[in-house]
């Protein structure tokens, strides 16, 4: 009984390289980017060995599969470098929350407004929530007015992604930062 070791099995994201290419016929592209033609995978492997490079399958789903003669180590390095750049350049947009109440005072509202504008300028989305407690549910219109005023003061820095909506005892709206034109 033969045991299959973990490193004998091909991984899902592993490239087809050299002896791992098991197709009968492949279309070959040389290291200068010129098409050599269609040939058996053994012949293609022999050509790659002559050039001192690797045979890498770049399009396994094509008919016939496309293989390229290249330096595989350099190719992997370039792929990892591109992936690092993509991760570095991508910015996760977080959702911050500002909580208001229907009885908020002017100064408290201004403090929360200043903090919200800072978040919008840094590129974060902001969820504005007006929470109603107890008998305040009878005066939702007051909370709606406070939310509308707050959003109007933020209008220069944001766009309304989700307009005000009452969900249970909370009136919420979501603001997204304006795209800066460079």
Automatic annotation (TrEMBL):
Residue ranges that the Swiss-Prot or TrEMBL entry lists as coiled coil: none
GO biological process: ribosome disassembly
Domain Translation initiation factor 3 N-terminal, residue spans: 17-85
Keywords: Cytoplasm, Initiation factor, Protein biosynthesis
This protein's GO CC annotations: cytosol; membrane
One of the record's GO molecular function terms: translation initiation factor activity
Pfam families named in the record: IF3_C, IF3_N
All residue ranges annotated as the Translation initiation factor 3 C-terminal domain in the record: 93-178
Subcellular location: Cytoplasm
Transmembrane residue ranges: none
Role this protein plays: IF-3 binds to the 30S ribosomal subunit and shifts the equilibrium between 70S ribosomes and their 50S and 30S subunits in favor of the free subunits, thus enhancing the availability of 30S subunits on which protein synthesis initiation begins.
Family: Belongs to the IF-3 family.
Listed NCBIfam families: infC
UniProt cross-references to PANTHER family, sorted A to Z: TRANSLATION INITIATION FACTOR IF-3, TRANSLATION INITIATION FACTOR IF-3, MITOCHONDRIAL
Subunit structure: Monomer.
The name this protein goes by in its record: Translation initiation factor IF-3
